[in-house]
Amino acid sequence: MAEQAPALDTAVDAAGSRSRVAGALTVLRRGSSAGSAGGVAYVVYVVALLAAVYGFPYGRTIFASLGSDQVERLARDPLTIVLVAVGYLGLLLVALRGARITGPVAPPPVWTRHVVAAPVDRALALRRWWWLALGGVVGTGLVLALFLGLSLWSAGVTGPLGAALCALVGALAGLLVARVWLTGQALVEPDLAGQSAWRPAGQLRRLSVTSLLAQAERTTLVAGGALLGQSSVLREQLVRSPRAGRARLRPGRGIVLRRDLLAVRRGTGWVVPSLLLLVAGWVLARTVLDDLPLLLPVGAVLLHLGVSGWSLGLRAQADRSGAPPLLGWSAEGEALRHQALPALAGVLLPTLAAAAVLVIGGSPGGRAVDGVSWAGALLLAAALVPVCLAAVTWAAFRSPPAIQAVPPRSMIIMLILWWLGPMLLVVAVAGVAWWWGGGSLAATSVIAAGLGGGLLLLVLVTVVGPGRATILGG
């Protein structure tokens, strides 16, 4: 197998490289959709469809209920600006680090072995794959920002020029994400003499045959794990390798809690889940203090993601489901013990964030904060933790999605909904609790905690317990 070829003099054989690459692309696309823009266009279409069906109505309702003055005040709030900036910087960091696993330039292995490894200009051989990825990322950013702008326009917050400006900003943000993604893929390769480390052409020439083939193998495993609903495969391929440490588990009280904490430290880490929980606490506190019930689903989603990040012990139990229990407990008992760590994190961190909001900021509208609002801001996140635990447990132990031998394109939407099912469950329970409680904080908290506890018990009995064998068998 050919390794990274030496840099070619692009001025010498540019015409020959173009003709060879064009001929190879013609052969590759006979009976195959590889290298076609149709796949990228379909992905952007799915994103646009989901944004139109779910994002636009929800965004319009939120902005209309807030009003233009409140939206403008929130947009100028320094904390909001910091959160948006930190979120986008986090997205850039994910693109930079994620490129070590799967980069934007991902040609099929047959193209890598027979064209990229050939004596042609590597930038020309990989340019089409880079353009496809660039179009997909920029198109996704443009579509999402466009529907955000349309939501603002439909709610009367801005005009058509504002919607167009949102779309432009989204496209530019997608362009920067794509460039950082390509840079991260090129940085893992050794320097190439005479080639720029920042220009796309120079970065494409740095990519080696070995790394492209390894990336194709990882992409296949990730796609298979997504189709089969195997989160363990996705974690193995997408998350960093477990770090060795000197910590040892000693027999005694709290061994499951200590083991789960060690798994989080050596696995995905505790920083990102903790930040998600802190932001969830801030959003839920603002929901109560500013009387913005439409922000409740946003806080519930963030809370669910944070709790899920602290639940690696529970997912590890689900991965070895069917094996003899390690400590002699029943499956339900062990799953219940594994929920101690995510429950503690889901209660303590959002409560700290809500307390900080109450002490530092209070209500931005200047109205007084009474004792009921204080208690509601501090306890709302804790009331939603049981339903988050139920959703995480269901996600870990549920049966995989049903697939077909030749899956149609419409299955992509069903697969996305399958992966988003636990999150949608949390949002639904939060909305039902608020509606059933009539807007009362005390009633909402009690109903949310009750529904969450009932769902958790139902999942433990019917999915984790004896019913799991029946579900998997079906």
Automatic annotation (TrEMBL):
This is ABC-2 type transport system permease protein. It comes from Janibacter alkaliphilus. The keyword Membrane applies. The keyword Membrane applies. It comes from the Bacteria. The chain crosses the membrane at residues 39-58, 78-96, 129-155, 161-182, 267-288, 294-314, 340-362, 374-397, 409-436, 442-464. Keywords: Membrane, Transmembrane, Transmembrane helix.
